[in-house]
Write a structure and sequence with these properties.
Length: 330
């Protein structure tokens, strides 16, 4: 009798191959989609303004958050729903899988970018802070009235104009201290120079704050600074329109165009009525204006004006100023 040869069922080999494929798939999935380092701690990842998806993927890869830029872009496309990543700081970890990292980038950032230019006053900055940090009116008021610890009456001029990364939950005092600390670092190299010029640092900052508002551009600053110092040395009122704007400014229009009648406004900041500097700065000056105050143009001029094209003209005498008014403004 012929023996029957038992063959393993084909299905057995098929199942074995499927298990191997599935196992390999799980390994590959875990490698490319899973965490890079299960034991990594949380760190801050910063998305700069204007960065593209490809740039974000490249930085995540370079910093060890993901293994594959291509795989991340798949997760990114699923998480984005057509939205863009808000620039700012995000708390990420290499212990997060690629899906979690992509989803985290479409949540509100832990830190936001905030910037303001030279020449803004404290209330202007408060408006923008309240909007971007979702502050209440009480928090906004707290920031405006926070003690700068710089001088009993020096409540303006010590918030350095720059770009900052601010924690989204920062208090008004936290933000004020951040801006002041930056000012102290930036101004420190010029403190000795101010002392050598015989100018207290508060006067330097006040003059620079006026210069930021009064000059039509950086090229005008040296001459205007020289004229302001000449007038101070001659015990003449500065007669600066920007100080009238500071007096009149209100929410919605912090720097209104002054009128002739405004020159009679009763205020210690009115440099048409009072000789010398106003009680404190009228805006937040940048380093450019501070440097110019310490290195003004040497001039004999005591008066100046800007013509209708924004070009500055100066004179040594009031009669010369009147002629310039007739020539350039009438």
């Amino acid at each position: 009798m012929k023996k029957r040869v038992l063959h393993k069922p084909i299905i057995y080999y098929g199942l074995s191959a499927l298990v191997l494929v599935l196992f390999a798939g799980v390994i590959l999935y875990a490698h490319y989609f899973g965490p890079v380092d299960m034991y990594a701690g949380q760190v801050q990842f910063v998305v700069q303004p204007g960065e593209t998806k490809d740039q974000i993927a490249s930085e995540l890869h370079a910093e060890g958050f993901i293994r594959s830029r291509f795989i991340f872009e798949l997760a990114f496309a699923k998480a984005s729903h057509g939205a863009s990543v808000v620039p700012g700081g995000y708390n990420l970890s290499a212990s997060m899988d690629v899906w979690s990292i992509a989803n985290a980038l479409f949540q509100p950032p832990a830190m936001i970018f905030f910037s303001f230019p030279p020449g803004w006053r404290k209330e202007q900055i408060a408006d923008k802070l309240a909007q971007e940090l979702n502050w209440t009116q009480q928090q906004k008021t707290e920031w405006i009235t926070v003690d700068t610890n710089s001088s009993p009456s020096f409540v303006e001029g010590v918030y350095f104009p720059a770009t900052y990364l601010i924690p989204s939950g920062a208090t008004p005092a936290d933000v004020a201290n951040m801006f002041i600390a930056r000012f102290q670092r930036e101004f420190a190299p010029y403190a000795n120079e101010a002392q050598q010029e015989g100018l207290p640092w508060t006067e330097v900052v006040t003059l620079a704050s006026i210069l930021e508002r009064e000059a039509a551009g950086a090229s005008d600053m040296p001459l205007i600074a020289g004229i302001m110092l000449n007038r101070l040395h001659n015990d003449m009122p500065l007669q600066i329109d920007a100080t009238l704007q500071y007096i009149k400014g209100t929410e919605g229009d912090w720097w209104p165009i002054p009128t002739a009648a405004d020159k009679s406004l009763k205020s210690p900041f009115n440099t048409y009525l009072h000789v010398g500097l106003p009680p404190h700065a009228i805006s937040e000056p940048g380093l450019g204006a501070i440097k110019v105050v310490l290195n003004p143009e040497k001039t004999s001029c005591l008066y100046y004006l800007h013509d209708t094209n924004g070009v500055i003209h100066c004179s040594n005498t009031y009669a010369g100023q009147v002629r310039n008014v007739d020539k350039y403004l009438k």
